[in-house]
Amino acid sequence: MGLGKNYDGQDCSLARALEIVGERWTMLVLRDCFFGVRRFTDLQAHLDVPRAVLTERLTTLVDDGILERTEYRRGRHEYRLTQRGLDLWPALFALSQWGERHRAPNGRRRIFTHAACDTALEPTGLCPACGTVPPPADIDMTPGPGMRPVRDDAVSVALRSRHRLLTPLMA
Amino acid sequence: MGLGKNYDGQDCSLARALEIVGERWTMLVLRDCFFGVRRFTDLQAHLDVPRAVLTERLTTLVDDGILERTEYRRGRHEYRLTQRGLDLWPALFALSQWGERHRAPNGRRRIFTHAACDTALEPTGLCPACGTVPPPADIDMTPGPGMRPVRDDAVSVALRSRHRLLTPLMA
DNA sequence: TCCCTTCAGTTCGGTCATCGAACCGTAGCT
DNA sequence: AGCTACGGTTCGATGACCGAACTGAAGGGA
After folding, report:
1. B76 and B121 co-located in one domain
2. Which is nearest to B100 in space by CA: A22, A39, A13, A63?
3. What is the pTM of this model?
4. Is the CB of B24 under 7 A from strand C?
């Protein structure tokens, strides 16, 4: 039916969600935003996405109110998750946990812990110690045993040590 | 880097997950499988996906152990979710709930209830009455107030009345 | 001041995926 | 024998994505 990327005939909120978030690279861009990446160049270097595609994805994410673009210096911008973007965390986490379980041959790549009590989260996002599901701002990420140092861009290097989600990753 | 659909340079289980489940139409195919659709023709009629694309998606889903293909009559097949496929439910549900919240102008399209106690699930998938997160086999789906009858294929019609997930949708 | 680098894109030609429509073979029904 | 349904396959056209090169503004160093 539809031409290109939308699912026109579907009266379904999953389809509506996928029209934004289901395009190639978009989820990985958002993952990096949760990890604390904020700048065009860092996203590009970490993802190896064609620049034109990255530009396109960022503008649609901004247009749809998932990212906010601010000029931190003349001509240079930062992209930050809005509340609408933050609300995508459960979906993104669930998908990555499925990947950890079913498609991570050498063991887990990353471990997410509730920062307040330093307990590893369950695949559902629940902190077993507190009985709560912490929001991304309360989550720390550490590399797991299955993570291999394949990349050497600045973002990949920074992600090799413990880091609080949503806080700026680069010095 | 990668050509086409994979995210080769990323040592990340989200990327690994998206290589399978992130292609166009794949999530909607899986959604229909959770809803109880099992046959090629029903999927095609409900999704308006090009037949060649549907064939390709189904074979990769089978190859990756997410769907199981069985011959229910000479030359005719049924596709059913395996355990690995069932494990995608939290991700699929989370994404559709995000769509319900942020991209459903006329109200919710579908309501999911815990069949055992007939209580509507929270966006997290939790049943507030039981305090548990029911698996898809224990969930009923009913049309919500925002759902409009735009399609008239057999699947869409069947989905207009209450239905238990994973049970065959067509008579 | 001049040169060099960084950032954040844009432009472009080529390749790959997806599109709609038509075609095909098997099986059951009448 | 003829018709329909199912589950695909084939094909040419269109659109998305690819890598590489180019741009333009700003900052830093000599």
Report:
1. no
2. A13
3. 0.95
4. yes
